[in-house]
Structure formats: C-alpha cells, structure tokens
Amino acid sequence: MQTRVCRLYGQDDLRIDTEATLDPIKDEVLVSVGAGGVCGSDMHYYFEGGIGQIRVREPIILGHEAAGTIVAFGPDVSGLSVGQKVAINPSHPCGTCRYCQQNLQQHCLNMKFFGSAMPMPHIQGAFRDLVNVRQGQCFAIGDQTDIGRAACAEPLAVCLHAVARAGDLSGKKVLITGAGPIGSLCAAAAKLAGAAEIVVTDLQDFALGVARKMGATRTINIAKAADDLTPYEAEKGQFDVCLECSAAPAALRTAISTLRPQGILVQVGVAGEMPVPFNPLVAKEITITGTFRFSTEFAEAVGMIDRGEIDVAPIITQTFPLETAKEAFEVARDRSKSVKVQLAFAS
C-alpha cells in the first residue's frame, strides 16, 4: 500500500512524499490517520530547523498528535478490531530502563516518541495517511467521538500531567500565562480539578476568547491591560498556583510577583535559557517545578474526551488537507487567528 507522508528535509523544506507502507507484523496495528494536530515542536522544526540544541539532522516525518481508524493488524494483536477508531499515543517507552521501572516512563532512557529529532536516527512521526503503531499505543474511542477531537488527547495529556504536578487545585486561585493550545487545555484541566478561579493571560484576544470557552474565569490581554494584573500582587501575591505556558521571561516575572508565599510555579512552556528573578522566588519560598510530557495521563485524556468530560472542540480553529500542509503551518504560527491547527488525511 502507498501512503502520503509529510516529511521535513530541513528548515523551511517541507514536502509531501509518497512511500510504501508495510503490512503490520506481530503486535503492530495499521491505522488510517484521520487527523493530526500541528504542535509547537513541529513548527520549531519547520521554521527554525530545531528546538534549541535539538536540530533536524536528517529527513523526518512530523507529527505526534494523531487519531484514526484501524485497517489491519498483526497476528499478536487482540482486543481491537478493523474499523475501530483509536487515539494514537506517540510515546513508546522501553519498559525496562531504570525510569520505566520507577513508573517514570516519560523519562525513559530509550524513549521512541513520534516525530522527535532528539535521537539519531530520528523517530518518524504520524503525519501520513497510514501508520503502523504498537497495540499498546492504540486507545479505543467510541464511534460518536470525532477523530479531530481524539487527536487532541496528546496535548490534553500534557496538561493533565502539568496540573498533577501542581498538587490539589480544589478551591485554589490559578494563573495561566499563555493561551495557546496548552494554556487553554490547562484551563480546562484546572477547572476539572476544582480550581475556584482561573485567570489566563496572553497577548492575543483571539486566543483569550478560546481560553474563556475552555474554562478561564477571567482573561487579561497584557498587551492592552497589563495593569489589570497589579491587584494580584497585593499582600505578597494572590495566586496559589501558576501554570506558566509561554516560556516568556516577562510571564515568569509576572508569575513570581503574583504568586502568594509558598505558592507553586509549574513551568510548562519550553524555550532557551531564561533569566529567573531569584530574590523574590527565595523570599516568598516559591516552589518551582518542571513538567515533561505524560505517562498514564494519555489514557485519562482519551477517556475524558470520549466521555465528553472535557470538550476540546473550541481549541481546534482550522483544519487543512495534508496537501496544503505548508499553508497550515503558516496559519498555525499566526496566533491572531489560530490556536490549534489540524491536518486532515485521506481517511
């Protein structure tokens, strides 16, 4: 069988190629991809040739947010059926390294993560009409669940893990800096976790409008009304938790100035090196913690989407056919009119 693939050859060199797809063997499942979300890492690879020290060093098929329909499977597969809809977990930990043995699979020393340029050779991604994945990477969804929404399970899993890193949010005041897909999904996850107040900041009104639909109780455009954050600095800070999703130095300063003493700062967004105002961080005894990908949260995310507990539809702002992938990437980086852009495939 032939499949189209969205392959990056280097910075600004994205091509739609056609190649043969092998029949599934052993515990492999052949999935006809229906939808794939364009992630920030995909855009960094395309527009910048990498992310920080991670560079694209060979052709790579992009994409790690995907869902589709099973068309075939190997002889060792059980419990799945042809025609069944599945969300695809892009994470494939080895299961045997020291971190996998400690249930820290997101830190697997031999991780194979779709569309990743971290290892060499690169791990090929899911932006293709047909892709073979392991049975353990397939999470069944109901016929009623839209494929595009199911493809949002991966970013939602990232946000569920980030919220878990913050501890119990019941009745808490939460600040979320950055209203991209991750920021908006963090708002939904924080709401589900029982946060009493969720304030989301960004530079774009369009993104903030989506954040309100996803659970923000208040939004602030800091390009127009930065002073609206000043009251939250009173009495050493008002927020219990900040989920910092922008990786912007100004946002980090805002987080530290508005967090209460012994508040928790979860750094979700990633970029290069960032200056940290350590004096207030130390004086207010703020806990700063990182968050990386997810583990068991992927199954949780699929279930929440499938049951309708979290409606991810508002973040999906545009869908483009695979053959117009370049246009999709251009729109995806225009935050004045997009949040989550998806590609649609042959199925």
TrEMBL record:
Keyword Transcription recorded: no
Entry keyword NADP: no
Domain of life: Bacteria
Organism: Thalassospira lucentensis
Residue ranges of every copy of the Enoyl reductase (ER) domain listed in the record: 10-343
GO molecular function annotations of the record: oxidoreductase activity, acting on the CH-OH group of donors, NAD or NADP as acceptor; zinc ion binding
Cofactor: Zn(2+)
Cross-referenced Pfam families: ADH_N (PF08240), ADH_zinc_N (PF00107)
Key words, A-Z: Metal-binding, NAD, Oxidoreductase, Zinc
Name of protein: L-idonate 5-dehydrogenase
Entries under SUPFAM superfamilies matching the protein: GroES-like (SSF50129), NAD(P)-binding Rossmann-fold domains (SSF51735)
Family label: Belongs to the zinc-containing alcohol dehydrogenase family.
